[in-house]
UniProtKB/TrEMBL annotation:
<protein>
    <recommendedName>
        <fullName>Amidohydrolase-related domain-containing protein</fullName>
    </recommendedName>
</protein>
<comment type="similarity">
    <text>Belongs to the metallo-dependent hydrolases superfamily. ATZ/TRZ family.</text>
</comment>
<feature type="region of interest" description="Disordered">
    <location>
        <begin position="457"/>
        <end position="476"/>
    </location>
</feature>
<feature type="compositionally biased region" description="Polar residues">
    <location>
        <begin position="465"/>
        <end position="476"/>
    </location>
</feature>
<dbReference type="InterPro" id="IPR050287">
    <property type="entry name" value="MTA/SAH_deaminase"/>
</dbReference>
<feature type="domain" description="Amidohydrolase-related">
    <location>
        <begin position="68"/>
        <end position="419"/>
    </location>
</feature>
<keyword id="KW-0378">Hydrolase</keyword>
<dbReference type="InterPro" id="IPR006680">
    <property type="entry name" value="Amidohydro-rel"/>
</dbReference>
<dbReference type="InterPro" id="IPR011059">
    <property type="entry name" value="Metal-dep_hydrolase_composite"/>
</dbReference>
<dbReference type="InterPro" id="IPR032466">
    <property type="entry name" value="Metal_Hydrolase"/>
</dbReference>
<dbReference type="Pfam" id="PF01979">
    <property type="entry name" value="Amidohydro_1"/>
</dbReference>
<dbReference type="GO" id="GO:0016810">
    <property type="term" value="F:hydrolase activity, acting on carbon-nitrogen (but not peptide) bonds"/>
</dbReference>
Length: 476
C-alpha cells in the first residue's frame, strides 16, 4: 500500500525544492539535505533550513522517510531485443545467432518503435534513467527508436552498428559506412536526451581498418565506441584460430582500444588483458545477469575496480530492474571470487551503487551530464520509499539498498527534471495500451522468425523430467 505523504502533482512544478530524509551524493549518504531542481538541472544543494530560507517563494515538498538517489545507468542494453528476453535463459551461449538475428531481421517499423518504447518503460520502472544501447540489427531507421525514447523520456546512448563484414569489406563500403556514421553523429550530437555512439557487434565481423576507423571517429567526436569482447569461449577460440590472438588482443593490435572504447561483457580476460584495459583506459560493461542466464563466465569486476578499470553495470536486455542488478553484481562476485578467497565484503555495498550511478555514467561517456546529484548536472534521479518493513530496522541503508531494495519502492523517476514515472507508471501516455499491442506483435514475430530455441519451456521440462523419473523407476 502506498503511504506517500506527497503527490505526483506536487512533483510536476517547474521549480522543485525537495526535502527528503536522505540523499545519496557522490561521496555517500547524507541526511537532512535539500535539493533545488529548476530548468531540468540540479541548481542548489544544502540543508533543509538553508534552502527553505534561501528560496522562500517556493513551497517545499517534504519527503519524509524518502531517499533521493541518482538515476541508475544501464551500461549495456539492446532495446529492440528485450521483448524476447524470456527466450534467453536456460540457453547455451551465443544465442544471438539462433534467436536475436532471426528476430531482428523481421522487425518492421511499427515493431521497432513499439518494442523500443516498451523497453524504455521497463528501464524506467527499474530505476534506470539512462541506458547505453549497443545497436540494433534491424535495418529500419534510428528515427523510430528516437521517437520512442523522446516519448518516454529515457536518456539513451544510442549506437549505430558499423559492421563491414570483414571478408567482404571494400574501401567503398568502409567509406559509405563512415559517411553514414558521421551523419548519424551530427544528427544527434545536440539532442537533449539521445547521445550518439558507434558500435561493431564483435571484432570478427569487421575488418581491421573498420575497427580502427570507427574507434578513431568516436575518439575524435568525443563519443563512445561499443563492441562485444571476450564474452563466450566459442568467440575467444574463433579469434585465436582466425587471428592468432584473443579478441581483446586483436582490438589492441589494430588500435581500437582507448578511453573512447566501451567493451561489453569481458567475462574471460587473462591477467595481461586486464592490464591492457588499465593501460589504455578502456571501459567495460559488467553484465552479471547475462552471465547467470547465458554466459560462460563472470567478469572480474571487483578486481577491475581495484585496478581502476572503469566499468558500468549492464542488463544486456535481460531484466530491466536496477536493484536486482545491484544484487546480482555483488552476489556473482562473492560466489565466484569472494568466497574462494574469504572476502566476506566483496565491495562493501557502496562500490556497486557507485558503478550503477557515478562510475557508470563515466563509463558510457556521460559523466559531465548525469550520474550524480551535483549542481549543474541534469536532474536525473529517483525518489525511493524507505518507509517499508524491510528498511524499518536498517543499520546500513547504503548496503541494504544493494541487497534489500526493490523496484516497488521507487516512488518517482525523473529525467532532466521531468517526472517520467509515478509509482511505476507514466502520467502522460497509456502504458497499458502499449502492452496490449506488444503482446500481439511479439507472438507474431516469434512465430514468423526462424529462431532455434534449444531449451524447453518450464512446463515441457517438467513433463520430460516426469517421463525420465518414470523410466528410471521402471528400470529400478
Amino acid at each position: 500500500m502506498n503511504t506517500a505523504n506527497f503527490s505526483a502533482q506536487q512533483l510536476q512544478a517547474e521549480r522543485l525544492l525537495l526535502l527528503p530524509s536522505y540523499i545519496l551524493l557522490k561521496e555517500g549518504l547524507v541526511q537532512d539535505q535539500a535539493i533545488l531542481v529548476e530548468n531540468g538541472i540540479f541548481q542548489d544543494i544544502g540543508t533543509h533550513v538553508e534552502l527553505t530560507k534561501k528560496y522562500p517563494d517556493i513551497v517545499p515538498v517534504k519527503l519524509q522517510d524518502q531517499l533521493i538517489m541518482p538515476g541508475m545507468i544501464d551500461g549495456h542494453h539492446h532495446l529492440t531485443q528485450s521483448f524476447a528476453k524470456s527466450l534467453a535463459y536456460g540457453e547455451p551461449s551465443e544465442i544471438f545467432k539462433r534467436i536475436w538475428v532471426p528476430l531482428e531481421s523481421n522487425l518492421n517499423e511499427q515493431f521497432v518503435y513499439l518494442c523500443t518504447k516498451l523497453a524504455a518503460l521497463e528501464s524506467l520502472r527499474g530505476g534506470f534513467t539512462t541506458v547505453c544501447d549497443a545497436g540494433t540489427r534491424s535495418e529500419i531507421g534510428m528515427q523510430l527508436m528516437v521517437r520512442a525514447l523522446e516519448e518516454t523520456g529515457l536518456r539513451c546512448v544510442l549506437s549505430l552498428i558499423c559492421n563491414d563484414g570483414r571478408a567482404h569489406s571494400t574501401l567503398e563500403l568502409r567509406q559509405n559506412i563512415l559517411e553514414n556514421a558521421q551523419i548519424f553523429i551530427k544528427s544527434y550530437k545536440q539532442h537533449k536526451n539521445v547521445h550518439p555512439s558507434l558500435a561493431i557487434s564483435i571484432p570478427e565481423v569487421a575488418s581491421d581498418d573498420m575497427l580502427y576507423e570507427v574507434s578513431k571517429l568516436c575518439a575524435n567526436s568525443n563519443i563512445i565506441f561499443q563492441v562485444h569482447v571476450n564474452e563466450h569461449l566459442a568467440s575467444v577460440e574463433r579469434s585465436i584460430i582466425q587471428q592468432g590472438m584473443r579478441p581483446l588482443e586483436h582490438l589492441a593490435k589494430v588500435g581500437a582500444l582507448g578511453p573512447q572504447t566501451l567493451i561489453a561483457h569481458a567475462t574471460m580476460l587473462t591477467p595481461s588483458e586486464l592490464l591492457l584495459l588499465q593501460r589504455t583506459d578502456t571501459a567495460v560493461s559488467y553484465n552479471p545477469v547475462a552471465s547467470q542466464w547465458k554466459g560462460n563466465a563472470v567478469a572480474s569486476a571487483h578486481l577491475m575496480h581495484e585496478l581502476n578499470i572503469r566499468f558500468a553495470l549492464g542488463t544486456d536486455a535481460t531484466r530491466a530492474d536496477g536493484f536486482r542488478l545491484l544484487d546480482a553484481a555483488e552476489a556473482t562476485q562473492k560466489l565466484i571470487f569472494g568466497i574462494p578467497t574469504g572476502d566476506c565484503s566483496t565491495g562493501g555495498g557502496w562500490m556497486w551503487l557507485d558503478h550503477a550511478t557515478t562510475a557508470g555514467a563515466e563509463a558510457v561517456g556521460l559523466s559531465q551530464l548525469t550520474g550524480s546529484i551535483s549542481i549543474g548536472k541534469q536532474a536525473d534521479f529517483l525518489i525511493i520509499d524507505l518507509d517499508t518493513p524491510e528498511f524499518c530496522t536498517s543499520q546500513d541503508i547504503t548496503w541494504d539498498m544493494v541487497r534489500l531494495c526493490q523496484r516497488d519502492q521507487i516512488q518517482a523517476v525523473f529525467v532532466g527534471g521531468r517526472i517520467c514515472l509515478w509509482q511505476g507508471w507514466p502520467l502522460d501516455w497509456d502504458a497499458k495500451e502499449l502492452m496490449c499491442r506488444m503482446k500481439v506483435l511479439t507472438k507474431k514475430a516469434i512465430e514468423a522468425s526462424p529462431i532455434q530455441k534449444l531449451h524447453p519451456t518450464a512446463e515441457q521440462h517438467r513433463q520430460l523430467h516426469g517421463q525420465t523419473s518414470q523410466q528410471q523407476s521402471v528400470h529400478i
